[in-house]
Specification:
By secondary structure, this protein is mostly helical. About 55% of the residues lie in helices and about 0% in strands. It is elongated.
Length: about 80
């Protein structure tokens, strides 16, 4: 009987401790989330800086000596 009571107290203590830890860590994550959201809402409005009244031959994007990759190297077929 005493062993069962000690086991019951241990498991009760263990579950309350783990739930308290999870509650504290979740609340800390929520505080960080709210802080980051507050930083986003404090940001200035995006100002568009581009010419919209140009001819299609004048507007464009040029890339010189550029390479595009997705994080891995592809061997050239030779």
């Amino acid at each position: 009987m005493a062993f069962s009571l000690l086991a019951l107290i241990f498991y009760l203590f263990f579950s309350v401790t783990s739930l308290s830890f999870y509650a504290l860590s979740t609340s800390a994550q929520l505080l960080v989330l709210f802080d980051r959201l507050g930083d986003v809402f404090k940001m200035e409005e995006y100002i568009k800086v581009r010419k919209e009244d140009c001819a299609p031959t004048e507007c464009g994007v040029t890339a010189k000596d550029a390479a595009f990759s997705w994080g891995y190297r592809v061997k050239d077929d030779e």
